[in-house]
Amino acid sequence: MIKKFQKLNYSIRKGEDMEQILSLPLLALAIGYFLVGSP
Fold this sequence. Notes:
Elements (H helix, E strand, L loop, with lengths): L1 H13 L2 H21 L2
């Protein structure tokens, strides 16, 4: 999971517009999943 976020951060730093557009909802989903899915 950490590697996925590192890859995500790398893509954002590279400044790829498509990666940024895709990563924002993905990050929101991940945060929501951890908040709701945490026991």
